[in-house]
Protein 1
Amino acid sequence: MTIRVIVADDQALVRSGFSMLLASADDINVVAEASNGQEAVDLARRHLPDVVLMDIRMPVMDGLEATREIAATSATSSVRVLMLTTFELDEYVYGALRAGASGFLLKDTRPHELLDAVRVIAAGEALLSPSVTRTLIAEFVRSPESRRPTPKALDSLTDRERDVLALVADGLSNAEIAERIVVSIGTVKTHVSRLLMKLHARDRAQLVVIAYQTGFTR
């Protein structure tokens, strides 16, 4: 299947560069380009892509607000957003997690890593750049607004599901979780699917948010 992508960045050369890179892959098709967040939202509604590659800092509407609108609108709720940031400690990254972004990458990511990231996001997984993940989580949980009461849904989790949620929140992949708790990758995928359903989360990124918001993981 071909992955349909929209590239949103206010810098024409950067936008063009990302588009050319993505178009070079046989399984990826760039359906549109946006120069600001509002255009990204409008184009997402028009084309319903699999993934929007979204810059954070843009005029008219920034990537954070654009992500929030895309995630909150029923017509585009299935569209995944992969955020691009220049700095590991970008203050907008923490808000983007809450807004519904499915992944984050630094702009200096290697070309093949960007292509792989788009494929991961399109497949319904979540991706946090290894260089961002730990700092992102640490800063996110320090924010007073990140604290919320523990949702009752956590009470319905089995002991094994709690184990898997803790490892997801720690940034481990399915393969790493399978090795840690000595089960098959298929079993881990089943546990993750049940977590997504029980906790009403879009993807793994939101599972991480829930784990830290509720105090389940510290």
Protein 2
Amino acid sequence: MIKMRTLYLFCSAAPPVFEVASVIEDAQARGWDVCLGLTPSASRWLEPSLDGLAALTGHPVRSDYKRPGDPDVWPPADAVLFAPATFNTVNSWALGITGAFVVGVAAEAIGKGLPIVTVPCANAAYVRHPQFDRSVETLRAAGVTVLYGEGGYVPDPPGQDWPSSFPWALALDAVDAAQAAHGAG
């Protein structure tokens, strides 16, 4: 029996999060066992869908750290995809500010050497802040594949609520490639 690969799919509260069910199905079709983690705001946005998303993945949807001594309800990750990753998430993660469960697990995944892909999702005004480029470079230097700019996510103008297209398929392709390279290494 072939062991399923486990993907931790982490999402921030940005409009592409509403597409997460189809992303989970796409990842499952690629052979991933998906565990869904959300920032607290993303969890609130998806609250009416959380039970259905848990049924779809076969795992509880998490947005909080477990208590010490509680069993882990997810299998260990083989890879992490953090998308959409908001301005706040990217900066918190790069700076090691791990108040949010998904940011903490993603930060720890760097230290564990897991394959990690992220797709930022922030408008053009946010990304002009000087910390954002520093944060993207920090994550890339730590080994995270950051799909941002040409060939990845290109920011939309401020005030546009929904990205013209979010590169979900590209993100899953990058996870597959990163995990395959990690397994070969």
Protein 3
Amino acid sequence: MGQKFSALEAKHIEFIGKQKIYFVSTAADTGTVNLSPKGGDSLRVINANTIAWLNHTGSGNESAAHVLINPRMTIMFCAFEGEPLILRTYGNAKVLHTGDALWDEYINLFPKSIASRQIFLLDINKVQSSCGMSVPYFNFDSDRDDLAQWSNKRGKEGIEKYWEKANQQSIDGFDTEIMKRADL
């Protein structure tokens, strides 16, 4: 049965550390709700009430736009092997861009990547666990390296041009501040 917690417990942190995929959900006050799968070595539990995750360059930039308008964020972890469990962390997030003062404090927690676009800090105010007994089993094969290859081929300048072309607004037209706050 589901349980609620005010912070991550040691067993939650251990579970999170074993996950190969997680899901991030954000929404502005109006417009489209965004739910994005994330993977790779892109998430760190800072403490029982803080998660940092590295957002790589992609075709959309919804989370950044949404958090600027409404900082609510949910991160969901789901067991696809072993004991069934769904774990959700709820709270308010802050987005860090490459030019922000706190960027250097967090970027070195993650593997170096030319695709690094933003870091999100989730201030957790609620944790919920639920059974997950209907979630199917899946076996992890490997991480994809497609994004790394795509990014490395473009280089820093090519990535920045892509941000300018495709990452300045959400699909609902909300500003992401990427060009204003990036260290170009």
